[in-house]
Each structure stands twice: as C-alpha cells, then as structure tokens.
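Hi R.,

Here's the chain you asked about this morning:
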Amino acid sequence: MTPFNVILLAGGERGPLYEPTGCEEKALIPIHGEPMLSRVIGVFRKCSHVDQIVVVGSSRLDELEAMQYVRKRLFTGINVVQNLLHAVTYVKHRLYGGRSDHPGYVVSFCDAVFLTPEIVESTLAEIANDEADVVLHYVQRSAFEKAGLPAERTYLPVAGMELTGTTIYYVRRFKHIFSIMPKLVAIRRHRKDPQRFLELIGCHSDMSLPEIEEAISERLGIRLRIALSPYPELGMDVDKPADLELARQLLE
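And here is the predicted structure, written out as tokens:
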C-alpha cells in the first residue's frame, strides 16, 4: 500500500489544562518529561503506513527534538477548521503535487498520547483496504469496560450501542473538505451533544450503522464509512485534568 501523509493538529492556547500545568499550549504539556506532541510524533514516525508528518502549530513547537521528524510545521489559523484547510492545502500541492491519485489525508491530534504504533498501523491498514471518501472510527463503551479503562467519554447512543469518537480521521479527496465544510462546522460545534449531533446528521438512535452510513453519505454527498475499533486507546485524548492524570498513570 502507498503510505499516508499525516496531519497533526497542535494549535490552541490556554485551554482547561492551563491552570493545572502552567502550559499555554497543550502540545507542550509534558507527560513524564516528554511533551505530548513529541509522544504522538514518535508513534506515527514508527509506522510503515506513514510517509510524511505535517504539524499545525506555533513556532514554539520548533524547539522540540521530535520536530526533526516532521516535514513541515504550518502556522495556526483562527480555528481548527482553518488549521485543517491550511494543512490539507500544503499536503495536496507540496507532497502530492496536485495529483488526484493520492491515498488521501490522515488527521490526528497532539493529545492522542494513548496511541501506539500497533494501533495506528492496524487503523491505517483498515482505511487503506476501504474505498470510502471519509472514514470515521468509533469505539464502544464496552471496549473501555473490557480493558478496565475509565469510560468517561461522550457517547452517541445508536444501533443499541454507545459509541465515542476517536483521534484518527480520514478524508480521501481534498474537494470533499470544501464541499461539506459548513456542515462539518455545525456538526463539530455540537459534538458533545449526542442528540443534537444526530439531528444535524439526519439520523436517530434507532438506526443501524449501515443506515447511518447511507443517510450521512446522501446528506453530505460522500461515501462515508463508519468503522468500529477494538482499541479503546483510539478513543482517548487529553482534554481535561482527569485525562492528564490518567495519561501519567498509564504511560511510561
């Protein structure tokens, strides 16, 4: 398979973790002495399914030793959507040369510190074997319980399951991001409100996953694939102090 180029979003300042850590940028918050972004870069660079890594963040990130493994750091815009567009534009024209026959865009985040190379390899291999325009991975609450991990996430109650989103996203074609951007902005705004989220995507909790895939694909004009991941770590990030404490407990 053709390796993917990966976009790591590392922008933002003074969020909920600023007060307990004193770090203005989440990407620089250390876990056992290693900044979160450095940990995430370290995981992706070990994966055979990954070619180049692009980071979106401030110039402060350039001081990290791990940035030597990054092809390009791009300055942040006014919000996460603009940051994503900057990165996709760079990857499309500088790394893919404007071609349409490329493997697409993998997006992750600076706080995806629970990922391992094995989880990333498995997830990217699954994406490569699919023909979808957009792939969204979800993890069931039961996967957290089975692994003995805290299940304090935001869940979507659908198809008789409780699902939470993950820290790896995939979009195959650049044009899809532009065409559905207004809808994605609205959906992202309500991602913590399960009922409103389902309303925005034109679905309800009694629908099966194939029915939801079909409904969203038709609504957004894309081929959407919803994949259930067996890895609860894929559905974990560091958004609040309790997440940071858990990361310090579980990670070396």
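One quick note: The longest strand covers residues 161-171.

Cheers,
M.
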